[in-house]
TrEMBL record:
Record has Acetylation as a keyword: no
Residues recorded as bearing 4-aspartylphosphate in the entry: 54
UniProt keyword annotation of Electron transport present: no
GO molecular function, one term: DNA binding
Keywords assigned: DNA-binding, Phosphoprotein, Transcription, Transcription regulation
Gene3D superfamilies found in the cross-reference section: 3.40.50.2300, Winged helix-like DNA-binding domain superfamily/Winged helix DNA-binding domain
The HTH luxR-type domain, residue ranges: 135-200
CDD domains for the chain: LuxR_C_like, REC_FixJ
Protein name per its UniProtKB record: DNA-binding response regulator
Species assigned in the record: Methylobacterium oryzae
Source taxon at top rank: Bacteria
Boundaries of every Response regulatory domain copy: 5-119
């Protein structure tokens, strides 16, 4: 099926090959590109499938690639691969229209789930998504301090940085973080950030 095509963009040959092998075992069709410019030059119009791109690359990075794809009229769903601690970049990517991001190193199922979701949606998640409305309602149940910690997490701050900003210990930050994760029902920071961006909270 054409919708199962994944355009993989990564400047690391080993990463490209391993992702291609992994996706192939799951039945995805794969096209590999070593740079954003490579994808832009070779992508057909109208294009099918989705784009899986690293966010940090020499030349055209993931964010610039996303800007250029949208500028050229491509509506392909884009999933970003980010390194640990790239939350601010991931937030920016989501605001530019990426439909998801996954943190390296990721497990197989996380990757498959992100790509299947992207291919099914065909673009950024709609604001009327019922799951999103539920998330907004759950955020409203947070205490003032939990909301402050949420805002700082989504901005990419570490527990130490949040502790300094709010004048509380990193351990206390972790307690608030655990509480807000439970209240919002976010499975991990990635999901919390995704929902927060889609809800306009970031």
């Amino acid at each position: 099926m054409a919708t199962d095509l994944v355009h993989v963009v990564d400047d690391d040959p080993a990463m490209r090959d391993s992702v291609a092998f992994l996706l192939g075992t799951e039945g995805f069709a794969v096209q590999l590109y070593e740079a954003g410019s490579d994808l832009l030059n070779r992508l057909a119009k109208p294009a099918t499938g989705c784009v899986l791109t690293d966010i940090r690359m020499p030349g055209i990075d993931g964010l610039e690639l996303l800007r250029r794809l949208r500028g050229a009229g491509y509506r392909l769903p884009v999933v970003m691969m980010t390194g640990h601690g790239d939350v601010p970049l991931a937030v920016e990517a989501m605001k530019l229209g990426a439909c998801d991001f996954i943190e390296k190193p990721f497990d197989d199922e996380t990757l498959f789930q992100a790509l299947r979701s992207a291919l099914e949606r065909g673009g950024p998640a709609a604001a009327e998504d019922p799951g999103l409305q539920d998330f907004v309602r759950r955020v409203e149940t947070l205490s003032a301090r939990e909301r402050q910690v949420l805002d700082q997490l989504v901005a990419g701050s570490t527990s130490k940085e949040i502790g300094r900003a709010l004048e509380i210990s990193p351990r206390t930050v972790e307690i608030y973080r655990a509480k807000l994760m439970a209240k919002t029902e976010a499975e991990n920071l990635q999901e919390l950030v995704r929902w927060a961006v889609l809800a306009g909270l970031a």
